[in-house]
Amino acid sequence: MQNIxxxxxxFGYYPTNYNIRCYYRNGEWGELECCSETTINIHMAATCxxxxxxxxxxxxxxxxxxxxxxxxxxDENAKRLQSSCDGICMPRFPMEKFEEAIxxxxxxxxxxxxxxxxxxSLYLRPLIIGTGARVGVKPADEYLFLVxxxxxGPYFKGGFMANxxxxxxxxxxxAPLGTGVYKVGGNYAASLRAHVEACHGGQYACxxxxxxxxxxxxxxxxxxxxxxxxxxxxxTPQSTSILPSITNKSLMQIAETLGMKVERRPVAEEELATFxxxxxxxxxxxxxxxxxxxxxETGKSYTxxxxxxxxxxxKLYKKxxxxxxxxxxxxxxxxxxxxx
Length: 340
Ligand SMILES: *Cc1c(COP(=O)(O)O)cnc(C)c1O
Prior knowledge:
The protein folds into 2 domains: 6-152, D-amino Acid Aminotransferase, Chain A, domain 1 (2-Layer Sandwich), CATH 3.30.470; 163-325, D-amino Acid Aminotransferase, Chain A, domain 2 (Alpha-Beta Barrel). It is built from 6 helices and 18 strands. The chain has helices at residues 47-50, 74-87, 95-108, 185-199, 246-257, 311-325; strands at residues 19-25, 28-29, 33-35, 54-56, 59-63, 69-72, 121-130, 143-152, 163-168, 206-210, 218-221, 225-230, 233-236, 261-264, 277-282, 286-295, 300-303, 335-338. Strands 1, 2, 3, 4, 5, 6, 7, 8 and 18 form a 9-stranded antiparallel β-sheet that branches. Strands 9, 10, 11, 12, 13, 14, 15, 16 and 17 form a 9-stranded mixed β-sheet that branches. Helix 2 (74-87) crosses helix 3 (95-108).
């Protein structure tokens, strides 16, 4: 175990021992390789550098209250990466290879898995980049898969907290038939300016996107899906331009077991006024409760509850965190145990 103050780590890069790599050459993926280098050497004409041929994932390994190490919904991340590969013309990375790479990466960096008490976890960042040289626009013929691990601090250092968000009407993250449903770097390049302008004043936690076509419906926050709660119902947008969050998918299942109704459908902006609670969800925070959403260009503002996380957000958060850390039964079989 490393002597690190786990509880005060930010959500940032902290150096670890090893990363796992795999190369696609001559039409096939090679063997997994363990590597201690943190740099990669690629051709200056690689497609990832010019045409954004890059997809990534984000998942966590948790040390449980029982000392065991669990990775949450590994198979879902493997599947989503394959879908992202399809979306930007990259060869699919095999499911079993993905799972093996993630488990290996956790095992080789085991002294960086934070303690249960700290609330921190080991974040895993797999990615695939086009490394083949091209000048014309065309998919690469060579690719690199890589996964690294880095310990990240608890998202809510001062306890579970609600934050204000802001709707951005000036920029779109993704088009209705674009790449919003894929976890690709290009979507983030497209969102950086909106993010910086909306959030770097320090007033808001994150920018919030409406559908690009009509600017009428709620899409999602910069890197997290949206859900609202009213009348014991969990409501989350259906849209062709949002990323299918695994956290959101899990919360929908948990909501039903907690006795809520679940609706996945278009959510018009005006409906925000009717929600009792609202939250953003994703791997980093699980749930980030939303205290308020401002729409500065129309002057509208929607407030949820009394500025504190609502009771449903609290219940959903506790249940999901509990499953991830072994204090709640894993009734859906979501965890993969790692021998360390
Ligand atoms: C990764 C991501 C999410 C959250 O997905 P999880 O699988 O829950 O971590 C939400 N929105 C976007 C745009 C993302 O890239």
